[in-house]
Every structure is written in C-alpha cells, then in structure tokens.
Design a protein that fits this description.
The protein is of the alpha+beta class. It has helices at 34-42, 60-71, 100-109, 142-149, 179-194, 210-217, 242-249, 291-300, 307-311; strands spanning 2-6, 14-15, 19-21, 24-26, 47-51, 57-59, 76-78, 85-90, 94-97, 113-117, 123-124, 129-135, 139-141, 159-161, 168-173, 202-206, 227-232, 253-257, 268-272, 275-279.
C-alpha cells in the first residue's frame, strides 16, 4: 500500500519514488536505512511516499518469477527478476506459440500484473528476448498470485516450438538453364530453413510444363519428401496455371491459390497424398520476409493449413517500403 509518511517513520519501508539530493540519488524500491533518513532530514525533507509491505504480500521479484514459471512451457528460460520484471528468453531457434486471447485475459485479470510478449507465431532465435512478466507495484498480494497459479488454462500456455524434422524437396521448373537465378533461389530457401535448423534435402530440375512437373511429383524421387516446394520460371498467375494443373494431374489437391500478402500474393498451397506442397512465389528469391515465409513457417512447424489459415494472413500482410512504378 502506498503511503505518505514522515521521514522518521520511514525506516525499513520501501521508497516509492526516487529522490535526488545534491547529486546523490536514493532509488525507488530501496529499503530505507538510517543513513537515508539522516540525509533526508539534513536537507529538510519532511515527508516521503513509501510502499508498506504486509505479511499478506509477496515481493515483486518472487511474484514475477512464480507467475513466469507457471505460464511458460517448453524451450523458454527465465532470468533472475529485477525490479519486479522477469525476462523470458528462447532456449532454441523455433516458433513462439501461444493463445493471444489467453494472454489478453491474463493481463485483464489483475491490475498489478503486466505480461508482454512478441507476436505469436514469430520465428525466434536461441537466447532471444521474447517477453517479460512485470509486477507493477513493489509487492503483490499472495492471494492474487495464488489465484493465477490455480488457473490451469495458464499452465505452460506460452512455448517455443521446435521445427519438425522435415524432408524438404525444392523442384525448380524452367525451360532455360539459369544457374545464377537457380542458385539464388536455393540460397534464399536454405537461409530461411536455417532459422528453423533445417535445410533442403534435395533440389530437382525439370522443364516448365505440366507433364514434366507431374512426372517428378509421381516419381520415386520424392517418395520420402513430406514438404515439396515448386518454383517455376513463371509466376502462378491463375489457379489453372502450369504448377496448379501439374499438381492436380499428379492426383494432388490445390487447397488455396493466392495469398493476401504483399510481397507474396502469387502463392499456392496444396497437398499430394500426405505431403504438403507450396507453389513458391517469385519474391522468394529475395531474403526479405514475404508471404512465402508465413506459409513455410507453418508447414515446417506442422500447423494444419487450409484456406482460412491463408486468408488470416491478411492481418499483418507484410508490405514495408514497396514502391510501385506507374
């Protein structure tokens, strides 16, 4: 509880606000000592704001640590809290996964608590700061902490997922040999996969026509693949374009053509038996984040992908410094 008290009654209380006296700072949160009282009296201070902690309270650091420990799951570590703030770090390269509605509910549940996280489904690096748990006052009532710890929905609801061990094939279809362009595609795809500790298992080539692509898709070359990336020398401009038709001829299914992302509109997602298939947009040659990244991430982390999932990409559909020439 915050109180305004006389200097002489502030011994062993928590200083609520920092005080500067002739260049000397007594920081907020400090337990007031006799030397502090003497200094304050010497400079004519009469009263100060203190936070009075009672046996009903738990310290801000202990509260933030206990709540952090309750809400985090796999592959997340907590630092030692400082000033009531426990920082959360990823232990691995992975994908941050949590229910944003549950996080909102947790923050609404108590005025003394603030839990901040980077956006869900973000790719994160090992040792990256991904969020923190902050207790706003200098202590929190034990019963309020206990109430949060007793809610099972909050248990381990924030986690970092490790990518599945994918066998990934990139099929480049082109009527011309363009070594420089092909190498650029291979390099950019592998650089993306490296973020998940994955890499291409194989790169295959064929002519850019329905039958040649279909024949590769039906061949033993991709039997062990569970994710197939189809990159053509021309963009997929229609659901009946070369790559979608080739997939359908191979008895595959086009789940969605086009994505509400820019860059990366001209993207296709489908399936071939138990394999996921991505028709890769031309912008994938660039390492700049685009619609291809959003789908590739979901595929590598075994999310179920359907037309709705792709439509939902419209919220946060990229952009950044796109300049169009008339």
């Amino acid at each position: 509880m915050l109180k305004l008290v006389s200097i002489n009654n502030s011994y062993k209380k928590i200083l609520a606000h920092s005080i500067n006296i002739n260049g000397k700072k007594i920081s907020k949160g400090k337990i007031i000592e006799k030397s502090d009282i003497k200094l304050l009296n010497n400079f004519g201070k009469k009263k100060i704001y203190i936070f009075e902690k009672t046996p009903e309270h738990i310290s801000e650091d202990k509260a933030s640590f206990q709540i952090s420990k309750h809400i985090i799951g796999k592959n997340i570590t907590i630092n030692n809290p400082v000033n009531g703030r426990a920082d959360l770090f990823s232990k691995i390269n992975g994908l941050l996964d949590y229910d944003s509605k549950l996080l909102l509910k947790l923050n609404f549940s108590n005025d003394d608590l603030a839990v901040a996280m980077i956006r869900p489904l973000e790719v994160v690096k090992k040792n990256q700061l991904i969020g923190n748990v902050k207790i706003l006052p200098y202590a929190m009532k034990k019963k309020e902490v206990k109430k949060i710890l007793n809610i099972k929905k909050y248990l381990n609801f924030i986690k970092v997922k490790k990518a599945e061990n994918k066998n990934i094939t990139l099929l480049i279809s082109s009527d011309e040999e363009n070594l420089k362009s092909n190498n650029k595609v291979i390099s950019s795809v592998n650089s993306r996969l490296l973020n998940f500790d994955l890499k291409l298992k194989q790169v295959l080539y064929c002519k850019h026509n329905e039958n040649d692509i279909k024949n590769i898709l039906l061949s033993n070359k991709i039997t062990n693949s569970n994710l197939i990336l189809l990159y053509g020398s021309t963009s997929i401009v229609d659901k009946n374009d070369i790559i979608p038709k080739a997939l359908k001829k191979a008895k595959g299914k086009v789940i969605a053509y086009g994505a509400p992302t820019d860059p990366g509109n001209l993207l296709m997602f489908g399936t071939l038996k138990n394999k996921q298939v991505i028709g890769v947009p031309g912008c994938a040659k660039s390492v700049v984040r685009n619609g291809f990244d959003l789908i590739l991430e979901k595929a590598c982390y075994d999310f179920s992908i359907d037309k709705r999932v792709i439509a939902e990409l419209s919220c946060g559909g990229l952009f950044k410094k796109i300049i169009r020439k008339n």
